[in-house]
Design goal:
139 residues; alpha/beta; Protein-Tyrosine Phosphatase, Chain A; 5-stranded mixed beta sheet; 5 helices; 5 strands; 19% strand
Length: 139
């Protein structure tokens, strides 16, 4: 699990949900799970939990992409410490988090993604990112 500097936002693998103590120590209050291929993980009762099962590539409905991005953006605007996670934490999580940062702060989407990329390795699917750009533009 890694923190996005300057934002109440963490990225990680869905496996981190099995460590409620680590989430509590980090101060996480909300979890946005983007993993389609993983079974939903139970989270501590005190945590807000949202699940948007996304494909890591093409094939996601635009409304689902938009809902995931807008949810994370709303949590960011409210200052809620949020973990965004997916299977490996390398594609869906950084893509949605980057778009959400941009939306929350009125930045171009690419700048939001650049903020996330600056924090560590990512492997964002170009098709997924293109679909997020289209879905958010239609917003």
């Amino acid at each position: 699990m890694r923190r996005i500097a300057g934002h109440p936002l963490w990225l990680g693998q869905v496996a981190v949900l099995r460590d409620p103590r680590g989430l509590a120590e980090a101060g996480v209050e909300a979890v946005v799970d983007l993993a389609l291929d993983e079974p939903p993980s139970p989270v501590a009762r005190r945590l807000v939990s949202c699940r948007f099962p996304l494909v890591d590539g093409e094939g996601n409905p635009p409304w689902l992409l938009r809902a995931a991005v807008e949810t994370v953006a709303a949590l960011l605007r409210a200052g809620v410490p949020t973990l965004v996670c997916c299977g490996a934490g390398m594609s869906r999580s950084p893509a949605v988090a980057g778009a959400a940062i941009a939306l929350a702060h009125g930045l171009p989407l690419g700048e939001g993604l650049a903020i996330v990329v600056a924090t560590g390795p990512v492997d964002v699917s170009t098709v997924l990112w293109r679909d997020i750009e289209i879905a958010v533009a239609r917003g």
